Amino acid sequence: MGNILLRDLSVYWCMIHVALIFVMLFRSRFSRKKTWILSGAGIGVLMLLNGIGLAVLGDQMGKLLLLTCSLPSFIYFWILSKDRKGEFLLTFCLADTSCLWVLVATNLLDTFLGGGQYVLMFVSRLILYPLLEYVVYRYFRKPYLELQEAVDKGWGIFAGLTMLYYVLIAVVSTFPTNIDKRPEDAPVCVLILLLMFFTYATMFTALYRQLLLNRKQQSERILSEQKHSLELQLESQHEIRKLKHDMKAHAITLSGLLAAGKIEEVVIYLKSLESEMEPVIKPFCTNMYLNAVFSHYFQKFQELDMKLHLEIQVGEEELPYMELCQILSNGLENAWEASAELPTEEREASVQMKYSREYLLIRIKNKCQRDLSVKKGIVPGSSKKEPGHGFGLATIQEASAALDGDMFAYTDSGNFVLDVMVRSKREKMRNNTIN
What is the pLDDT of residue 349? Predict the structure, then answer.
């Protein structure tokens, strides 16, 4: 009786760690605290019901675990999960098959080395499950969550593979009876366990390479945005230097007109010169880097016959201009692309930049298609499936995170709104508001 109790306790120990590993790896719809509370409550009820079944049915309960444990927990966590497709299925089967692997391996270990007394089974499970949990948390959790965040497609084949292994191991280890009652089938079971180990190693290697590829693509995109920002700055500086050079010729012309007493011609010439200089030196803000971005897109929006309202409350203080130029360039490019699809009279966008304590708040808002719907907190993908939006938002999110900030994108009353807040300390500020 005592030995059977050790076996049953070790099964409970397994169920606890299956839940812990899964909660570490999946992306929940709720906050971390609420996720842990709901997970603990759900798994607690499930363990209680399966404990009653184990006490009543004994060894026969092992054949029903798929229906009494795995399926209910799958449905419960599916409700809690942010992902409802291949990512969730892979994560669920990954946690289940890893713990089931230990369950079956320790069962075989106890059968052939422990005399079937369940003592070796209990001790080995007591050690191996926390060890597995530590390895998952220490080495696997962070890159796996990053991969789920970055990659949208390609999860289905891995999810199908893990699900197949779960069913295969469950059937081989429990049907027609538990594997400890069928020693002649132990070699087949061991081979399946080894095959699963090497298959998972190959799968994780492929996933890790995908992660490295994604990081490389993100780095290339950031470098591209930095190059674009620098080109805008250089273009602005080049135009200013050219204007300074041309001013000598303009001064000679004006001097000649004044000497000849042609005042009306001087006025006409100055007005034409003012219109020529306006797109080059229009002061949107006192920060030369941000001003270069605003100048570029102000001119680009004018060519589209699009209204652009600016409310910029930054001065000459030191700013992280590289990241801010990335944020503004991508946000304004999205606004321009979305507006190009609208009737001329609806083309409108605005930019606000202001401080709130130690944070710099940026809001870019533009008119969008009426059927576009983006909920706050859900970032549209970069594939441009949504009309006129998506490209560059990942770069904005990375730039804001680099400045210890955050980004939110959503639609509101026919407008696409991009809110960004970044941490920024002001040394000295001079407000400069232009509408």
Answer: 93
